[in-house]
Amino acid sequence: MTMEVRATMHALSPISTNLHERIKNDVKVEDEIYARLSWRNLTVVVNGNQSVLHDISGFAEPGRLLAIMGPSGSGKSTLLEGLAGRLSNQAQCHGEILLNGRKEQLSYGTAAYVSQDDVLLGTLTVYETLYYSAKLRLPDNMTRSETELIVKKTIEDVGLQDSMSTPIGNWHQRGLSGGEKRRVSIAIELLTRPRLLFLDEPTSGLDSASAYHVVQALQNLARDGRTVICSIHQPSSEVFELFDDLCLLSGGKQVFYGPIFGAQEFFASAGVPCPALRNPSDHYLRTINSDFDRVTENLKSWSKRFDVEDGCLHNPMARKSTAEQVRILVHLFATSEEKRVIDNTILSMSKMEGKVLPTRGSQASFISGHYGVAAFSIGNTLSSLPFLLLISLASTTIVYLMVDLHSGMERFAYFVLALFASLMVVESLMMAVASLVPNFLLGIVTGASIQVLLSFLTPFLSYT
To answer: Is the pLDDT of residue 191 over 70?
Structure first.
């Protein structure tokens, strides 16, 4: 094991080290537990010809918090999903993505992905939510005391120890705030101690104070030796300063990549320095966002009308359109010293003989390792049985009495079971269609078409 890896391991908390050793003994995990992610010339094409990302390069290292930032539609979420291996079937990803210098597929146990939406049960407390998730995801041979210790330590990692017994909350029950719910979602993914963490706009919909606490928790996680990558839309100046590195996108192109402090020097050298007392992130987004073109034109007209002298408006770079500014910035970055450093770093990372955390088996990313296909199918079927039986009983009772069919409990029960079996067939058919057809509306049309075809085989239509 290299000295750098040893330093990373020493930075881990005791519970993190113990959990990794426990999983190592259970699933034969290799020595190195760090995660260095690099990507080079990454291009994403949708529907065969529409380029969403074009020639994106960068890297993410342990102990550092990387922000992917850009205006709406710039490709932030697409880049994050591409790095996490969560792109849809309609998207084609070209380029090179390396984990510890190897082409490895990210799966359950190696990386975790936190989406924008908090999918939580409002009636459970914070501790109950994490404990139930831990029982489903951690090794089976862990004792109850070990599981409880991991859950409590994870709650402390995200700063929710004072809300451990507080319900999550829903529309009729008061519970956690939006920022606290987001931290619970992050804590759920941290139970398996992943070394690589992806987050899709973790501060979306939060106030400035909640957003600061969420990003501060992510910064602490990064300092614990993890590699944390998150997309973010428009952070405040306090939140922006918590990040270590910045990847700035505009229209699917890379405008800047490097340390946060290097962004100001880059924009200043390009002729668009950040004014004093202005949020740097706001300035960067304003510079590369075409939505501000109309605002700039209005400012120019008002300055001419009232003879207002504004150094920013008289800046030659500021008088250019956003598209021209972005084109210049992209070209400057492609030929800059920062780009050369990135290429050299990616090249050196690709030559490292690092090893990736093996997992207990590749699981679908959308279930996050909670359960497999068989468990979902059985659980979904069992949960729907009472409702289908109730529908069968209610419908049969009304029809049976209205039509005045044969009396007798045996015949009535046979009629109920026949309808119940038909509903079960339709339920299973819809599950099969949903698993095969990715589009929601197309799935409804496909399922309805199959039912129409099956109806022609019924005895009623066959003999009329």
So the answer is: yes
